Amino acid sequence: MGKKFFQTSIKDSLFTGLIALALFGPIVGLRTVAKNEVLEVHPKWFIVLIIVIVCTVGRFLTNLYVYNRDQKTGIQSSIGKSISNFLDTKGYQIALTAIIFSVIFPFLPFTDRYLMDIAIMMLTYIMLGWGLNIVIGLAGLLDLGYVAFYAVGAYSYALFAIHFGWSFWICLPIAGIFAAMFGVLLGFPVLRLRGDYLAIVTLAFGEMIRILLLNWYQLTKGPDGLTGIPRPSFFGLPFKSFPDEGEQTFHTFFGVEYDPMQRIIFLYYLILVLALITNLFTIKIRRLPIGRAWEALREDEIACKSLGVNPRNTKLTAFAIGAMFGGFAGSFFATRQAFISPESFTFIESAIIVAIVVLGGMGSQTGVVLATVFLIGLIEVFRDFESYRMIAFGGAMVLIMIFRPRGILATRKPTITLEKSSSK
Amino acid sequence: MDTAYFLQQLINGVTLGSVYGLIAIGYTMVYGIIGMINFAHGDIFMVGAFIALISFILFALTSIALPIVLLLTLLIAMVFTACYGWTVEKLAYKPLRKSFRLAPLISALGMSIVLQNYVQAAQGARIKTLQPVIQGGFTFMEDTGFTVSLSYLQIFIILVTIVLMAVFTLLITRTALGRAQRACEQDRTMTALMGINVDRTISITFIIGSSLASVAGMMFVMYYGVIDFYIGFLAGIKAFTAAVLGGIGSVPGAMLGGLLIGLIEVFWSGYISIEYKDIAAFTVLVVVLIFFPTGFLGKPDIEKV
User: pTM for this one?
Assistant: First the structure.
């Protein structure tokens, strides 16, 4: 830390300030405002000045105190490792505690309507994350258009429920099958593509579905969306405060007072069960030949081919099953909202789900839960700052990729290992 | 009438294709040199469009002659947008160069979200309208019942694109910088051993790509007169399609692909359906990747075991 070092850090931080001025000067400093249909520029130099000073001083301080990068990343990864170790040894107990907590959650004293809504939203994302984890985490196919299957599930549920009046439990599997069919439809042409090409094509597919929903007015009512989607009933018993003549509702059947929370709690358990089914399915299928083939394909496609694994069928099943769970989640979304429009299925939703899977640590089921709680929590905390929260969200994606590129739970035990021979 | 309509679509298609081609060069160069899809490139284009818009508004207050205004705006947009490209590379991609394959793509996705929302926060979510900067043009074939018009603006766009293309082709094929770039594409470690600063070469690639995207942004705002913070997403995907169509990694291929995508989009909306014009580009992307994944001018990608 000689004089030379001090000089270079000053030079470096001044350069940072200059770059910051160039970056933020025009876009932040010169805000364009429309006045009488003509744009005017309103200067905001004060904010730019603050940003530039913060950048310069910040750069100077990091140069002085944390210039030794290796040390820093060392600490970071050891924290991650200890989390992973902790989860490895205590994984079963933690999972059990989490499940028990989520089962009793609606009856805890501090739980109110707002918390329940967030919990339902988080569980939906957890389910989507677990569904996409089959495609990304197990089969290693980066799918940026997962929201398309979510949309297909939601729309097929809504259309069947509105036009045929079928109940939730009939429409749910139909929606899942439809979504799975779309999964095969998308999977078929893109099977030969690798890595990032696949990502872009799936993204294009997601957008195509959205444009189709937006423009096929006769079927989807376009941007107006579908309204009046039937609410779910408790195995045939609807949740209504004023039942029709002679109609059995949930509260008359069980002889309790009507409370709007009853429906919310039912929805909560519905999504909890759906999500847990997804999780259980994934855990089980990983031990089956198909699940092992997925993981093998992710590691090395050529080796798989030479061992007689059919990559086409293997990838197609991954797409179809992942899509099916997306479709289930979509049906749940439709019945919960009672209104769907293409607005809900934009690319940013896909990005959020992918972020959950990747940040959690691809293939890690617990990681998905942690990442959902972190990211959706982040979005909720910054609820009042619409665009700032998305800046924080995108920034978190970049930062986690830099510091923990394999996700929060980076180390993952292989699903199957050869046992050490006991006869020694 | 039919020929006139066709000719009009052709003119519009070539203009739009120039814009896509300029963006596509950024994708193709970055893919060539570090093998990643720079997902945030479409948003760099959007930032370029905003800087050009702001610059036009400021110059409208002065009484500088139009050609000088155009030249200055071009330079301003290029310089400031290049800063964005440079910073994005330094912050989000450089630390990930040795990471696993999908890490830079996800980081780029995050960067794209950051840029979009940053511009939305700083400039507002409303669409921005710019008064026409260059007006007038030629009209011909008036007697056929459908007047074909070729505006001065379209001529300007096509000319600037040709000039920039020529300059950058020369830069890549004839200069030491271009040689260094092509060397980095082939083998980065070996290039570094030959005494070439690989980090600097990659930075310069990003700077060139971003400044070309900003020119495209400037043309976009002049041509359509309307922009918002979201234009980068669609334009980015279409330009990427163009880069793939022409063969990713090849600069003339990107230009050719851009031209084709522009023509396909314009003819699709002119003859088939305007609502589904975005689907046209996506369909082309899927079809091209399935039937010729290396594009027209690309080199085959051989997978080694």
Answer: 0.85
